[in-house]
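Chain A, query sequence.
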Amino acid sequence: MTDIGIFYFATEYGHNVVDVARDAEQRGFESLWLPEHTHIPVSRKTPYAGGAELPEEYTHTLDPFVALAAVATATKRIRLATGISLLIEHDTITMAKTVATLDLLSNGRAILGVGGGWNREEAEHHGVEWSQRFQQLEEQIRAIKVIWANEEASFHGDHVRFDPIWSWPKPIQRPHPPIVLGGETDHTLRRVIKHCDGWLPRARDPEIIVRGIARLNELAQEAGRDPESISINVFAPRPDAELIDRFKSMGVARIVLWLPPEDRNAVSRRLDGYTRFL
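Chain A, predicted structure.
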């Protein structure tokens, strides 16, 4: 069975994210995904990955972890996900505690979606060496899992280093909250196999996902990993019944539908329309 989630570009001017979450849960949607940009550099040297002018909401995104914590207190079942968190812009130890706390307060509903990002200047403002961002990302994922799994945790890599530490809370989910990685390249698929629980590809070109699933299965078998242990989470496909049914027939774990930051009535109409895919 394929779950249907909602991605919401939560801002201060759109419908309140807590109300969106309540409305989505009431209608039967399985998960709520929030994006992350700590800021957008005014320079705008890096072109928008979508290929046009940068939409206004990118400069107005709420902090996803604070927003998801608020959602956790107002809901009971809906999964709480980042889509995606720019992990390279965060301190590793602090992020481990943040996600573990969210998982605890939500009674085991957290999903950590991560990626390397597309805005070079944004990452560099956080001290990230752009050419090393994926190496850093891999180490951070590994280190976070070490913190979650051990009473005394230590890690010594090229980008993340700490001697033995105590860090609680530990997540409720075991062995840990799912970590899913965004991206569509062969390098992304290899990182998913090595470090993650799921793949989060954008559905701009459905054929990339079709080929990616086949390639992911191939790489998993080569690495001795069961392909069934890796969830496929299709991100923001067109809300087209034929396309959604095609993804469902492929056995993807989750389809995440896009919800822009509109007013309450517009959001409600979109959610009502999306219920036909449940």
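Strands lie at 3-8, 31-34, 79-82, 110-114, 153-156, 161-165, 179-182, 198-200, 231-235, 254-259. The radius of gyration is 18 Å.
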